[in-house]
Each structure stands twice: as C-alpha cells, then as structure tokens.
Design a protein that fits this description.
Elements (H helix, E strand, L loop, with lengths): L8 H12 L2 H11 L1 H34 L7 H50 L9 H14 L2 H29 L1 H31 L1 H15 L1 H10 L2 H53 L5 H42 L5 H4 L12 E8 L9 E8 L4 E5 L6 H8 L7 E6 L2 E2 L5 H6 L1 E4 L10 H6 L9 H11 L2 H5 L24 H18 L4 E5 L7 H14 L4 E5 L11 E6 L2 E6 L1 H7 L2 H10 L4
Parallel strand pairs: 3-8, 3-9, 6-7, 7-8
Antiparallel strand pairs: 1-2, 1-4, 4-5, 9-10
Length: 615
Amino acid sequence: MDQSEVTTPWLKTRKALRVLAGTPRVLKLCFESNAKLTTGVVILNTLLGLGPLAEIYIVKLLIDFVTQSKPGSFDLNQLALLLGALAVVRLLSNSLQPTLEYIQELLGDFLTKHVKLLILNKTSSLAGLTYFENPKYYDQLVKAQNESGYRPLGMLFSTSSILRSTIGLVSMLCVLLAFQPLLVLLLLALSLPHLIAQFRHQDQSWSINDYNIPEVRRMDYFGQILTMKDTAKELRIFGLHDYFIEMFKTKFGEYQKRRASLRLTHWRNNILLSVLAATGMVASYGYVIYRAIGQSISIGSLSLYLGAITQVQFSLETIIWSLARLYEANLYINNLFEFLALKEDDVTAAALSLDNISHKDIVFDHVTFAYPESDRNILDDISFILPAGKTVALVGENGAGKTTIVKLLSKMYSPTKGTIKVGDKSLVEIDPKAWRKSTSVIFQDFNRYHMTAQENIGIGQVEKIDDIEAIKQAAIAGGADEVVDKLDKKYDTLLGLWFATEDKGADLSGGEWQKLALARTFMRTQATKTNLLILDEPTAALDPKAEHEVFMRFHELTKGRTTLLISHRFSTVRMADLILLLENGKIIESGSHDELMKQEGEYSRLFNLQAEKYK
C-alpha cells in the first residue's frame, strides 16, 4: 500500500499488523532449513528471558537478609544458599548466551543455503524466456537476492529477542503491578510513541530502497562495465573509464542524498523520543525512592523495584527496536515471497509426453509472435513445414525473425497467434523437458563455462559428464580435439580466467570456444536420441576452412534428424533440402538452392552479392 493511502491511525495500525503477520512464513523457512537448531534458539531465548527476574529477586533477598540480620548472628546456611542460587543463575546466563550465538550462526548457514536454493530452483522452474527478457523480472530477482542472505535469519533473531524480552517484561510488570499499577501504565504509555515512530521510520526507509532498485541495478551495471574483461579493451581504446566512473558517482550521489535526508529526520525523532523515555524513567525512580524514604517498603524492595523499572525500560526498548526491525524485514522479505510466487508461463504448464510424435513433420501454421510488453510483431502470420528427417535453412538479415523461430521451436516462448504442430499435436501441449530432451541446439550466443574442458563438453549430456571416451568422440566431431590437445592438462584444464589461482586457466579465442560449443552439441546428439537439431549460426566465429570441416561433420550428424540451420553464409546453406528467406517477419521466398537461384529473386541476389567477395 502506498504511504499516501495510509492516513488514519486505524489504517496505520491495520497495515502494521498486516505486515507483521508475515512473520510466521519466515519462521517456517527457519524450521524447514533446520528444525532442531530453530527449536534450540526458541528454548534458549526463553531461558535467557527468565534470567533477569531470577537474578534481581535473589539480589532483593540478599539485601533483605543483610538489613534484617543482627550483628554477630546470621544464618550462614541461608547466605550460602542465596549466594549459590545467584551463582547458578549467573553461570547459566553467561553460558547460555554464547551457546545461543553458536546455534544461531549454525542455523544462519542452513537458512542462507535454503533460501538461496529456493531462488535458484524458482529461476530453473521458469521454462520459458518470458521473464528473463523483462527488466521487471530482474528488479524482482535483485530484490529477492538482496534479502535472501540475511533477512530471514535477522527476523528469527528479532523474534527471539522479542520472545526473550517479552518474558522478562511480563515478569517485571507483574512485580510492579503488585507495587503500583500506575507505574506500569506510565511506562507503557511513554513507549507507545516510540513504537509508532519506528514503524513509520521503517516504512519510509523501505519506500526509498524499494523505489531505488532499478537505480541500484544501474550502479551495479556501471561497476561491471568498469571491472569485466569483456569491456576492458573498448574502455581503454575509447578512454571511457572516467566517463563511467562519473556515471557511477552521479547515480550513487542521487541515491545517497535521498537516504541521508531521511536518516537525519529519523535521528532527530529518536533523540526526542529518548528524552521522553528518560523522563518517564526518572519519574518512576523518584516515586519508588519517595516510598522507600517513607519506609513503606524495605531496602530490598527498593532494589527490586528500581531493578524492575530498569528492566522494564530495557525490555520495552529491546522489544520496540526488535519489532521495528521485524516490521522492516517483513516489508523487504515480501520481495522474496513475491519472487517465489511468480506464475509459471504457458510453456511450463504443458504436460503431454512425446509418445508417438517422434519423427513427424513440424508445421508452423499462421504463426504470429510479439515479445511481451511489445506491440511489434517479430513474426507476422508465417506458415511453413520442417519435413521430418530433412534440413531446412533460414536466411535473412538481422532482425528478420530467425532467432525468434529458434526460441519458439525450443519452447522458450509460445506463439502469440497461430499454432506450431508436431504431427497432429500442438507444441504448446508438449512437456518442455521432454521436448528439449529430444532437441539439440547450438545457439548463436552460446555459453562459455569457466570450468574444465571436459565439463564444457560433457554438460551437453550431463548424465555422461564423466564418460571421457564419449567426450573425446564429441570433441573430435566438433573439431575441439585440436583445441584440447594444446592445453596443458588436456581435458582437465580449467578454461577462462575467472577462477584461475594455482590452477592457471586457459583463455581461448572466440573460434576455440565455438568449437567447444559444437562439441557440446555433438555430445548431446551422440548420447541421446535427438529428433530435432537446431544450428543457430553454429560456425560464426570460425574461419572458412574450419567451417567447411565442421559442416562435413554436420552432414553426417543431420542424417535422419529434422534440422533447422541458420547462417549468414550462403555457401553453408546449400546443403539444406529447403531454404526459407525471411524479411521483416515474413517468408518471401522458399525452395531448394537451385530452385531459388533459378527464380533470380532476392535469395539469388544476396547469394551472388556474397559470392562476389570470394572472387
């Protein structure tokens, strides 16, 4: 709810209660991560909450013992019993606190892992790309990640602190109620403005931080530009270091200015509230001392009541600050639960298996597609067939819609309009995991894993990542065996420089990385029965000789498989049984290479234009 909507005390109270009502779901996370440690935290806090009452009551008995004993005649056994009880209480308090801290630290590790796994599993469960290509998703992800590391554990600590302090507070209030009920009312009434103010402060702080998440991401982005290898060359050539430093400083300055102004306001309010609390405490002390001077209470009772007032004041402060932290944490932790509650997209909801639809024609039937939150159609009412077991090539300029077709075929998105059919089944209805298991893809923007050469190839079929013979065969098929042979530790060599320490990493060229990606594709096609092979610019980083060698291997690989090939090099698409020319999201020409050349249309013009470069 927006702050401007919360105007009346009743609405403010309702909002505060509603926010605090989110606490149990976080405590549930604690129990899910480790039930035994969470229970231990609750029990230890309960015992520590009872400690102050036991201690000040024993001190009262000791003072009364001293003041009421006659010189030369006092009960040594009673004195020893009281001192022994005080020693036991103090020993327990002193030993329970470090024990609590130890258990909380252990629990923190389990809880952090549990919450991070929830986030990672959630991102993995989103089968399509709808969220991943939307900036709002990354705002939500950053918010969730920001809170996942410490908020849940902090909320457990705050709840534990409230439990401990409440136990101590109630016990002390019972002592004061028996003495003077008005003192209890005075102390509670003076604490109420402090509690209300802290809730308001946390609301204001949360609003600023939540509003600034896109700006924080922008600052992080500038930081990455300044520190990553991929941007280092261009920054130095164009002298952009100072420019991006200034961009970072400007954004950080705007963010810092808003926070600094709010912090100053909160500091002033807290000073005034501290004066109010101190006044109430001094007045309460004065009343108790007045009663002691009038000899209506004993010296031991004086000590008891003064200690009770001090403990009440301390417990109230602890509870207020803990409630404020709990309230603040609930505001932030809601980001985590909103992220975990993201709805699956339509490609995830499908459940039809691949039974009886293998090796069927794939039909695009009047397919139109526009990316979410965009009004522009990338594909506009296109229809074509990928014949079973044949190779179809897509050609066209950048932005024509080729990669979008790849995303639709690999079930990263579903069509906005129209249908993609596999035999007589709609692709939308087929389970994405089952479909992708029967599909092998090499993307234009393939991943470069900073792992060993064996792992880079083996993850093409992760079940066989330890099968070194299969990995070597895939490397040979993809032309990566020559790359690996040059490495110091061969297949055990760490690739990339991110994690290189004593195990020096190997920095590969773009073409070498692409050969590893090709080997990864061969690993998948050799290890599993893939029915669809998608090659999206599979040789873009290779020289013509290496490209020719790879396509000779692909010629064998594509036999019996439905294959979609995308390439800007017209010489490579001649192997296709069918060529589709895309322009502005529409298919303007289709046919074999020879058929299209005879038409002397756009394909023929582009082929001849490219061929001129090699004359």
